[in-house]
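Deliverable D5.2: sample structural annotation.
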Amino acid sequence: MTLNSPWRRAAAAIAVCMTLAACTPGASPDPGGVDSPVDAVDPPRPGRSTLDWRRCGKPFECATLRVPLNHARPAGRKLGLAVIRLQAPVRDQRLGSLVVNPGGPGGSGVQFVRHGAIDAIPAELRAQFDIVGFDPRGVGRSAAVSCGGASNDLLSSDLSPDSPGEVAPLLAAARRLAQACGDRNGPLLHRMSTEDVARDLDLLREALGDRQLTYVGFSYGTFIGATYAQLFPQRTRALVLDGAVDPSLDAQQRARQQVQQLERTLGDFLDACDTEPTCPLGRRKGQSRDRFETLLAALKQAPLPVPGSGRALQASELLVATAGLLKDRGPGWTSLGLGLRLASDGDGSLLLAVADRALGQAGSGDWLGPLLAVNCLDVPAPRPQAYPSWPPATSPTSSAFAKPSAVSSTATSGGTGAGIWRMTPPASSQSWLQTTRMSWY
């Protein structure tokens, strides 16, 4: 996914959101209009978390925010959260801080701001707000959750088993992953919920000196924003929630929804390839889908060796690369069409590189660990015995996406090392819909 598209969508939403701040739950009317400093800096209070800013590559500044591991015990063990900001150039025109989260769970707000803020955020917005990103607890440079090689062991398994004999080793790999995550990360796994992150966000708001939060969240980042608004309505100024996640859904419902969305988007891509001259997959109706499903079936039978790497492209890596590139209808779709054609012709290097980046093997850390750690606490999941009866598959393609989504949840309920990672989602469907209506444009 490129950063430009969501940022450009958000820019228009933010401009409207600034004028609608009084409509956000808990915000008071602003008699001065949009240009008044509604996020004026609060004076420091004793014991408040502070940020010691330092240069970390012009024009950015970085700091570490100390937060309690357990918010019920604020004097106990602390975690350090990585924070980055791009300051508004003229301080007396500054309205406050705009905190952003790219989603995930597991997305780095630090990297999101560093690589997207200058090019993608309109200059007039950067003139009024410090753009702030942070790595949530357990992510990136904030005490990152890592499950070692167990994550890659699971992802390199056959994620689309067709028989009970193929299901058993997959569930065993999921249990090993849960055990490894628990052994390596200890108490942190039990403090990775979205409610914990929202409470961290409030400490960040306070450390920034803002009386109320102005926030943009994408995908899972919308859940963080909605949870914050429910916990701290009087401290919420304006939210932009792009690609809202419904926190009332359980694991089965979320998996089914994600599979349907992936299948729909993949169908749009393959249909476009049949008629788009620049797409190298097909030239007649249905040809692109035939090639995709033929490639997927072939990789399930035998991975495709990638010369010079000592490795081979597996079916699971094809699915990871496909899901990632489908998010961007510009360069992502172009790369996906090229990668699929190359793999069909025997060269899986491009898709393997994309999968490596998504899975954290190219320097971005353990991608699966923090995602599972958050989801296991936030989303009720079925016991492993329920697999593979859900989610239902409607085509060979959706089956390929559906089964891995079910497998990932077995690690949330089957691991002895971490116990059962689970909590009730803190935001109700009712409050979610209210927050979303306030925030969308």
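Annotation notes: The two ends are 22 Å apart (CA to CA). The chain has a mean pLDDT of 76.
The annotation will be released with the project's public dataset once the embargo ends.
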